[in-house]
Amino acid sequence: SPDGEQILSGDDAATIWLWDRENGTALRQFEAEGAITGLAFCQRQSN
Fold first, then answer.
1. CB-based contacts of 11: which residues, under 8 Å, 6+ apart?
2. What is the rounded CA–CA span in Å between residue 14 and residue 26?
3. How many CB atoms lie within 10 A of CB 19?
4. Residue 3 has what DSSP assignment?
């Protein structure tokens, strides 16, 4: 969120916002179909 408290937030329109905690800007916006019941994160490995 813009205050740096949340890294993810959602709303009633099934939209998920991914926030940059450093500067409070939205990095990505995801649209979901129906109810969101869980989230999974995959960390990319850098060689």
1. 17
2. 16
3. 20
4. T
| Alpha-carbon gap, residue 24 to 17, rounded angstroms | 11
Domain count, the chain: 1
Q: Whole-model pTM?
A: 0.47
Tokens (6 digits) for 39: 């989230």
pLDDT digits (tens, 9 = 90+) for 1-47: 666 666 777 766 677 788 887 888 888 888 877 666 677 666 666 66
Residue 4 domain boundaries: 1-47
Residue type, 24: G
